[in-house]
Amino acid sequence: xxxxxxxxxxxxxxxxxxxxxxxxxxxxxxxxxxxxxxxxxxxxxxxxxxxxxxxxxxxxxxxxxxxxxxxxxxxxxxxxxxxxxxxxxxxxxxxxxxxxxxxxxxxxxxxxxxxxxxxxxxxxxxxxxxxxxxxxxxxxxxxxxxxxxxxxxxxxxxxxxxxxxxxxxxxxxxxxxxxxxxxxxxxxxxxxxxxxxxxxxxxxxxxxxxxxxxxxxxxxxxxxxxxxxxxxxxxxxxxxxxxxxxxxxxxxxxxxxxxxxxxxxxxxxxxxxxxxxxxxxxxxxxxxxxxxxxxxxxxxxxxxxxxxxxxxxx
Length: 314
Ligand SMILES: [Zn+2]
Known about the structure:
Structural class: alpha/beta
Oligomer: single chain
Bound molecules: zinc ion
């Protein structure tokens, strides 16, 4: 399309003025902050958020954030193990790149912890919430699909854990998101100089979120985390979720309205004694489905997640 280039540039410019995104290296951008969530994946390529901060987007993988510096590279999340080579390539291609010295695991999932073994063997620092470390020391089976995850080898387990908050020598701050939006080990990483907040899967930037109630996540945690994260940021903060495009404060506000509505409806269904299939049939997300996609799996999982937290029988 002849208009595509200009259109894209306008949107990048608009987003940059709004502080909502950055410059893309090596790939066209079709969606940026504020664009409606769609079923398409975010574009591959490296998104430059500032002089030293980047989002690395390997096709089919969750977002990885990389900060370059005199001491080497800091990563937030490491993709899945199968993508390690592609990710390492993307890291070495960064301007001012160097060896990775530290990685954060925003939570225990395989899509985030695939680089741990390699970095652990190299003696690098792997930072996570203590609950994330604990999940990586045990086998996990997801009850909704039977998928099994073997415990991580000791060398791949986080070697620096925390409970509440922490600060790196560089000034980068991190903290626990105790609402259990996605798992009970979710963390955020905040880059104050760049005004960038990395939130893992505690916020979904693309489509319906995954509610991993097997390791503590629940729909009430999604509703709780959104206002909590808003207290850390301002209107110019760029928010990097594990999936989808860079978000802004307005996105968190809109998500809070939506998930709050859905949470209320699901708890009402639960209190009336309905089950997961009845919850799906009730269409508790109906006015959002055109924008967000088929909600059935999300609704079922979100409803089941209530059992552990607010079930009258619990
Ligand atoms: Zn996850």
